[in-house]
Amino acid sequence: MNIQTNDIGHVIQLSIAPVFLLTGVATKLTVLLNRLARVIDRTRVLQDELRKEQRPEYVEELDVLYQRWQLINYALTGSTICGFLICVVIAFLFLGDTTNIPLDRYIAGMFVLAMIALIASFVFLLREVFVSFRYMRLHMYDHTAPQE
Asked: What's the CA gap between 125 and 131, in Å, rounded?
């Protein structure tokens, strides 16, 4: 196995695009984890309030938060799968170049699967945002109701 410096340089050039994609996926994971943390924090507050007083609006909001939690978890799963597959693509790029094993079909297949996982993750994120906005729109004027 005679690895030339030019060969390594070429593989590094090929892996730059997936590395940038991996950086974007990592940033997206951070956004998703922050959204999940906010849902969890709000859920804890509502559960404490429900222990004090049973109110239907608390139960309704908990249902919406559960729906958001599920969608965020699906988005996190898609992003994580995407990130994993991109890492494998990068490893296969180096492995294929250093061992002369023809891995091009595997690399292409994993990249396509990574893109499908990323698309699914974005769809779930968008759905979660729509659920959040719908709930906000439905209750936008609740605070203006007269208190007795």
From this structure: 10
- pLDDT tens string 117-145: 999 999 999 999 999 999 888 877 776 55
Whose structure tokens read 């919406």?
64
Closest to 117 measured CA to CA, from 88, 72, 75:
75
What's the Cα-to-Cα distance from 80 to each of 11, 66, 83, 103, rounded to whole Å? 24, 21, 5, 23
Selection from 70, 93, 100, 74 nearest residue 22 by Cα: 93
Which DSSP letter does residue 4 get? -
Question: What token pair was written down for 51?
Answer: 């222990």
The rounded radius of gyration (Å) of the Cα atoms in the chain is 23
Tell me the pLDDT tens digit for each residue of 51-94: 999 998 899 999 999 999 999 999 999 999 999 999 999 999 88
